[in-house]
Amino acid sequence: MTIAQLASYSKHFMGGTRGRVLALALPSVGEQILNMMVGMANTYMVGHLGSASLTAVGLSDQIVMLFSAFFLAVSTGNTALVARCIGARDKERACNVLQQSMLTGGAIGLACTVVGMALSSQAMIWFGAAKDVIPLGSAYLWIVSLSYALMALMFIGNGALRGAGDTRTPLWVMGIVNVVNIAVGYALLTGLGPLPALGVRGTAIGATVARSLGCAIVLGLLVRGRAGLKLRLRISRPDWGVIKRVMNIGLPSGAEQICMRFGQVTFAAIVASLGTVAYAAHQISFTSLSMSFMPGFGFGMAATTLVGQQLGAKNPEGAEEACKISSRMAMYLMGAVGILMFLFAPQIVGFFITEPEVIRLGAICVRIVGLTQPATAGMMVFSGGLRGAGDTRWPLIITAISVWLVRIPLGRLFALTFGLGLPGVWVAVVVDMMGRALLFYWRFHSGKWKTIRV
After folding, report:
1. What angle do CA 181, 361, 420 make, to 5 degrees?
2. What is the 3-state secondary structure (H, E, C) of 312-344?
C-alpha cells in the first residue's frame, strides 16, 4: 500500500460519523479507565495487607457505588438534555440545565453524606462482613462519605461536558484524580516519611482528597466557561420545570443503577458466604473485569452524546447510524480484550495478590467472563444510545428482570445448591449479561426511542 493510499484510507476511516465516534469514545475510554483505577489502585495497595483488608475495601466500594447511583441519576438526565440542547444549538438552555442539575446533585450528595456517615458500621453488618472486616470497612466508608457531595458535582460536571461533546477535559481531570489518589493513599497507607501508617484508612483519605480536588477543577473550568457551557457562581433558585425534565430521564436510570447495585450487594453476600478467600478472588476478578468493560463504557458514552445531539438536530437516522458504528467498534475492541483475558488470566489476578488459592479461583472467573466480551460491548453501547434518546425506562426494566430474575437466582442455585462455588457464581453473571445484550439489541432496533420527547 502506497503512502497516498494509506492517507486516503485513513481519511475515509476517520471521516464522518466514524471519526466523530472515535473522537468522543477514545477519551471516554481513557476517562473510564482512570475512574476505575481509583478503586483499582486502592485494591492493589490494600491487597498486600491481606484478605481481610481487601474484603473490607471491596465491600465498602460496593456501598459507595450504591450511593453513586443517586448522583448518576442526575448526571444521566443532565447529559441527555445538554446533548439535545447542543444539537439544537441552544447553549443558553444547556447552561440552565447544567445549573439546575448541579443544584439538585449537590443536595442529594449532602443527604448521602449524612446517611453514609451515620450508617457506616451498620452497613457492613447488613452486607454480611466477617468480624475482622467490619471495623476496617466501617472506617473506610465513614471517611469516603465525606466526599459524596463533591463526587456528585464532579460526575454531573463531567457528564455535562460529555453531552456538549468535550470528552477530553473529563479525561485529564481523572488523570489528576488518580495521581493524587495514589500519592496520598500510598503515603498514608505505609506511613511514608513523617506520616502515620493508617492502613485501609489511608487509602480512604487518598480517594476522598483526590475526588474533592477533581470536583474543584471541574467547577473551576465550568465557572470560567468550557465547551460552550458556563456555570454561574451564585446559587440559583430551583427551576422545577428543568429539574423535572432532568429527573424524568434520570430517575429511571438512577433506579436502574440502584437495582444493579442492590443486586451486586446481594450477589456479594452470596459470594461472602463462600468465605474470605472466595470473596477476595471475586473482588479482584470484578476489578479486573471492570477494566475490560471500559471500551464498552467509552463507546456507550459516545453513543449517548451523538444520539442526543442528532435527535436535537432532528436527525434520527444519523442517531441510529452513530450507535451502530459505535457498537461495531466496541465489539471488535472488547473481543480482542477477551482473548487476552482468557490467555493471561492468572497473571492478571496475580498482579493484585500473591495467595495461590485466590489466584486459582480468580483466574477461572476471569476466563469465564472473557468469553462474553463482544456481547457485553453491544449491551453497553445500545443501552448508551437509549439513554441519549431519553429512553431510560426500558433499560430499567431490562436490568431489573436480568439481575433479579436471572443473575441472583442462578448464582445462588449454581454456587450453593449445585455446589459449584465461585465459578458457579460467574456462570450466572455470564447468563445475565448475554440475556441483557439480546434485550437491549431488541429495544434499540425497534426504533421506538426515535419518537421520545424529553
Report:
1. 130
2. HCCCHHHHHHHHHHHHHHHHHHHHHHHHHHHHC
- 3-class SS at 225? coil
Based on its alpha-carbon atoms, the radius of gyration of the chain, rounded to whole angstroms, reads: 21
Report whether 99 contacts 232 (CB < 8 A): yes
Cell, residue 336: 480482542
pTM of this structure: 0.79
- Residue 114 β-bridge partners: none
Whole-number Å distance between alpha carbons of 322 and 152: 29
49 closest CA partner among 231, 187, 190: 190
Q: Which three cell numbers stand for residue 156?
A: 454531573
End-to-end CA distance of the chain: 49
pLDDT at res. 67: 86
Which of 246, 235, 212, 253 lies closest to 70, judged by CA?
253
DSSP string, 382-445: HHHHHHHTT--HHHHHHHHHHIIIIIHHHHHIIIIIS--HHHHHHHHHHHHHHHHHHHHHHHHH
Question: What is the residue whose three cell numbers read 483466574?
Answer: 363
Residue spans of the domains in the chain: they are 16-451
Q: What is the helix (H) or strand (E) element at residue 29, kind and residue range?
A: helix 16-47
CB atoms within 10 A of CB 255: 18
Helix (H) or strand (E) holding 353: none
Q: What is the pLDDT of residues 416-430, one digit of tens each?
A: 889 888 899 889 988
Cβ atoms 61, 142 nearer than 8 A: no
DSSP 8-state class, residue 238 = P
Summarised one tens digit per residue, pLDDT across range 351-372 is 877 888 888 888 998 898 888 8
- Cell 447511583, residue located: 69
Hey, what's the cell of 378?
Answer: 453491544
CB 349 within 8 A of CB 366: yes
Tell me if 414 sits within 8 A of 427, measured CB to CB: yes
User: In which residue ranges of the chain is pLDDT below 50?
Assistant: 1-14
> 333 burial class (0-12, 13-18, 19+ CB within 10 angstroms)?
buried
Output phi, psi for 353, to 5 deg.
-155, 155
> Which amino acid is located at 275 in the chain?
G
3-state helix, strand, coil in the chain (%, to 5): 85, 0, 15
